[in-house]
């Protein structure tokens, strides 16, 4: 009986620790994102991108070159921060804060195509655009 109680308690703990992803997190994971610093949605039409980010379900993220899909050292952090943060990302739904490489971003708006945020440590705007809208040269195609 004691083993059954222990097993039920362990099962309860596992179920509590598993949480459902928010719609925003699901969108991050389902797509690849081209990152623009200090840009607005209107200004990125004339911009050229060189890299994109992926967000994995296990809480890690990766950055790649658009042209070759090789791993890219992120534009948003220094190597020391990247090593310390271990490429982790998280989203706090209560505060609408996305943290990537220990850098906090305040979510302003989000759709399946575009995410607008404010980088809190530097105070400028950031835009993520779905990678499907860019060619291998980094030009916006839609």
Structure description:
By secondary structure, the chain is an alpha+beta fold. The protein has one domain (21-133): Lipocalin (Beta Barrel). The protein has three helices and eight strands; from the N terminus they run ααβββαβββββ. The chain has helices at 2-17, 23-30, 79-85; strands at 32-37, 51-55, 61-65, 89-92, 97-100, 103-110, 114-119, 124-130. It has an eight-stranded antiparallel sheet. A hairpin with a 2-residue loop joins strand 5 (97-100) and strand 6 (103-110). The longest helix is centred in the first third of the chain and has 16 residues, at 2-17. The protein is globular and about 70 Å long. The termini are far apart. Residues 12-17 have low confidence and may be disordered.
- Structural category is alpha+beta
Annotation field: number of helices:
3
Shape summary = globular
CATH topology call: Lipocalin
Give the quaternary arrangement of the chains: single chain
Uncertain segments: 12-17
Order of helices and strands: HHEEEHEEEEE
Extended strand count: 8
Integer tally of domains: 1
Strand ordering within the main sheet? 3-2-1-8-7-6-5-4
Helix content: 10-25%
Short account of what is shown:
The chain has 3 helices and 8 strands; from the N terminus they run H-H-E-E-E-H-E-E-E-E-E. It has 142 residues and is α+β, with helices and mostly antiparallel strands.
Which helices and strands occur, and which strands form pairs?
Layout: H1 2-17, H2 23-30, E1 32-37, E2 51-55, E3 61-65, H3 79-85, E4 89-92, E5 97-100, E6 103-110, E7 114-119, E8 124-130
Antiparallel strand pairs: 1-2, 1-8, 2-3, 4-5, 5-6, 6-7, 7-8
């Amino acid at each position: 009986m004691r083993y059954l109680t222990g097993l039920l308690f362990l099962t309860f703990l596992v179920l509590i620790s598993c949480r459902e992803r928010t719609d925003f997190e699901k969108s991050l994971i389902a797509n690849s994102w081209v990152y623009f610093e200090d840009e607005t949605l209107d200004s990125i039409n004339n911009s050229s991108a060189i890299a994109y980010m992926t967000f994995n379900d296990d809480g890690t993220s990766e950055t790649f070159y658009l042209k070759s899909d090789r791993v890219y050292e992120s534009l948003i952090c220094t190597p020391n921060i990247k090593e310390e943060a271990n490429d982790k990302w998280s989203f706090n739904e209560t505060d609408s804060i996305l943290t990537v490489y220990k850098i906090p971003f305040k979510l302003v708006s989000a759709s399946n195509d575009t995410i607008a945020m404010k980088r809190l440590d530097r105070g400028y705007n950031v835009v993520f655009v779905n990678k499907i809208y860019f060619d291998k040269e980094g030009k916006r195609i839609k």
